[in-house]
Design a protein that fits this description.
single chain; alpha+beta; Creatine Amidinohydrolase, Chain A, domain 1; Creatine Amidinohydrolase; 6-stranded mixed β-sheet; 3-stranded antiparallel β-sheet; 14 helices; globular; binds manganese (II) ion
Length: 438
């Protein structure tokens, strides 16, 4: 049995224990979790791609079966209401037979109207978790996504079970295959579109299977943080390549970024190598008890060092930070929690009661947590030439910039290096670098 299947029973046991305690705290008998349904396109008979409710895939490894539901009752085996319509237009999902099914009570149904009678008799004390309040009303579930309940479930999701970690390890292994294929396609002269196709093919993922829209950016496009355009034509000159792309296994995501210089021995190639060193040095500082925010602040100091080293700006670290210069070159956060969602929940939650800690004023960051064993986070520092941000700097700040060096770097765009790591008692388990990706 593979590591994922092997750890599933204990995953369900852990979820049941956590859920029983949460339900008791909120005086609920249980929850009904709706897998969801695809949203229809306006004035059309087509639907947007189906994306399952993360609470649903937390319990069962099903990501493509709309209309299924889970009934989670304290102290009882989860009931999976499994939708198998009679439908000659679409492929009907087969009844699952894998080992995980032993951990649930599988109830098959063929018509949506049957759901009402499949609800628990004592449903008045159940809450509904899902995207469709109208559906909850039809089912007679009055409590829809109560925030205190969701906060408690979300907070509990931060500590991953071994099953979840193994799913993400596999999602990293698959994504690394794609990253290598993409790098080769870049070196062979591929366009962004061709590189994307190479990635998808190597990972056996369709465009709607990847956990987020891949960022496949050549040259100056790599400075556009959420670049998803994909040029069909290869550029005349190949300078740089940034790819931010993941994969998913049982609905768990990986999220990896690499940057490549086409030729060695230039400013950009040195910048990539130096950023890689800094990223790995930040990784060595991860341990339980460290606040994520402090790692982000530490990275700003390192960016200040890099700006001086590469003569993009000059000034002592604190001045470059205080004048907003490091933020102009490194405008995003160091990373985020990852799991069932690429940007996983509870990045700001400090306890199960919903207490949130926002990032310090002016700081862009998706996580302010104190790290604990079992959390999975990304570490993804970057450095870019983004003219709109440089133009917004004060005159005092602009005086510290070196326009010639910035001009030299601009055609290369930017650099970012990202790994997914598990926090351990004595350091990290790097899910990304375990697979021979430099
Ligand atoms: Mn990321």
């Amino acid at each position: 049995m593979d590591a994922i299947a092997q750890h599933y029973p204990e995953h369900i046991q852990t979820l049941r224990q956590r859920s029983d305690a949460i339900l008791a705290d909120h005086q609920l008998t249980g929850v009904v979790i709706d897998a969801g349904r695809a949203a229809g396109i306006f004035l059309d008979d087509m639907e947007y791609p189906f994306k399952v409710n993360p609470h649903f895939k937390h319990w069962v490894p099903l990501t493509d079966n709309p209309h299924c539901m889970l009934i989670i009752r304290a102290g009882a085996k989860p009931i999976l209401l499994y939708f198998r319509p009679v439908d000659f237009w679409h492929k009907v999902a087969p009844l699952p037979t894998d080992a995980w099914v032993d951990q649930v009570e599988l109830v098959e149904f063929a018509r949506l109207e049957q759901l009402l009678e499949l609800m628990p008799a004592d449903k008045a004390n159940f809450a509904y978790i899902g995207a469709h309040a109208d559906h909850a009303a039809k089912l007679g579930l009055a409590q829809v996504n109560p925030k205190p309940l969701l906060d408690a479930y979300h907070f509990s999701r931060s500590i991953k079970t071994q099953y979840e970690i193994e799913c993400m390890r596999e999602a990293n292994r698959i994504a690394v295959l794609g990253h290598k294929a993409a790098r080769d396609a870049f070196m062979a002269g591929g366009s962004e579109f061709e590189i994307q196709q190479a990635y998808l093919s190597a990972t056996a993922h369709g465009e709607n299977d990847v956990p987020y829209g891949n960022i496949v950016a050549l040259n100056q496009n790599s400075a556009i943080l959420h670049y998803t355009k994909l040029e069909r034509q290869a550029p005349q000159q190949r300078l740089s390549f940034l790819i931010d792309a993941g994969a998913q296994v049982n609905g768990y995501a990986s999220d990896i970024t690499r940057s490549y210089a086409f030729e060695q021995g230039n400013l950009y190639a040195d910048l990539v190598a130096t950023m890689d060193q800094h990223q790995q040095q930040i990784l060595t500082q991860i341990k339980p008890g460290v606040r994520y925010t402090d790692l982000h602040l530490e990275m700003h100091k390192r960016v200040a060092q890099m700006l001086n080293q590469f003569e993009l700006a000059q000034g002592d670290e604190q001045t470059l930070i205080d004048l907003g210069i490091t933020k102009a070159f490194y405008p995003h956060g160091l990373g985020h929690p990852i799991g069932l969602q690429v940007h996983d929940v509870a990045g700001f939650l400090q306890d199960a009661n919903g207490t949130e800690l926002a990032p310090p004023a002016g700081m862009t960051l998706r996580c302010t947590r104190v790290l604990e064993v079992g959390m999975v986070i990304t570490i993804e520092p970057g450095l870019y030439v983004i003219d709109s941000l440089l133009n917004d700097l004060s005159d005092e700040a602009k005086a510290l910039l070196n326009p010639q060096r910035i001009d030299e770097l601009r055609p290369y765009g930017g650099v970012r290096i990202e790994d997914d790591v598990v926090v351990l008692a004595d350091g990290i388990d790097n899910l990304t670098r375990g697979f021979d990706l430099a």
